[in-house]
Specification:
With 182 residues, this protein is of the alpha+beta class. 44% of the residues lie in helices and 23% in strands.
């Protein structure tokens, strides 16, 4: 799932001022500014998602996010894409095993899962629940996936804010740097 951000800038004004040199200066500057903006937006989105979900660490979120950057010869556009499976319950703050089950707070909402237990399976120390009355099979308890949280208004607002400010600052800087080279 990706979210499209449209950033409007004074590119036409800069093109008019530069005349013939505009393609040599503006296209690379737009591409670099879009890439810088996507990378900064990815970082801000990860931090915001971590806070909204109530996670202990940023690692499970950053594994799910990636910045798709613009390449030379293409239309200068970049994006932040979220993919991935639900995050294990062991990554959430306040998750603990009790005698009767597992208490967790995914997304800040308290949840009790009866007959859940903590167990190390392979290299994974997580919370599990049996599928039936038998000993096996068991399934891992998880919270929501990152893409479903990325579309929330709080995260979207932060992403838009960071993308706009970063793009404006970086575009002006990249244009100035390229003009100094000419």
């Amino acid at each position: 799932m990706s979210i499209e951000l449209q950033i409007k800038s004074d590119v036409l004004e800069v093109e008019r001022m530069l005349g013939n040199m505009s393609r040599q200066v503006i296209d690379p500057a737009l591409r670099q500014a879009a890439n810088d903006s996507a990378k900064k937006t990815k970082t801000a989105a990860g931090r915001s998602i971590k806070t909204v979900m109530g996670l202990r660490r940023l690692k499970p979120v950053s594994r799910s996010l990636r910045a798709v950057t613009a390449r030379p010869g293409q239309v200068p556009s970049a994006a932040v894409v979220a993919t991935g499976a639900p995050i294990p319950l062991s990554e959430f703050v306040g998750t603990r095993a009790t005698r009767k089950g597992v208490k967790a707070k995914p997304m800040g909402r308290a949840v009790f899962i009866q007959s859940g237990f903590r167990q190390t399976v392979g290299a994974r120390n997580s919370f599990w629940r049996r599928k039936g009355k038998r000993r096996l099979p068991i399934r891992e308890l998880t919270g929501p996936p990152v893409p479903s949280v990325m579309v929330k208004q709080v995260v979207n607002k932060k992403m838009n804010e960071v993308a706009l400010t970063t793009f404006r600052d970086r575009f002006a800087g990249h244009v100035a740097r390229r003009l100094r080279r000419i």
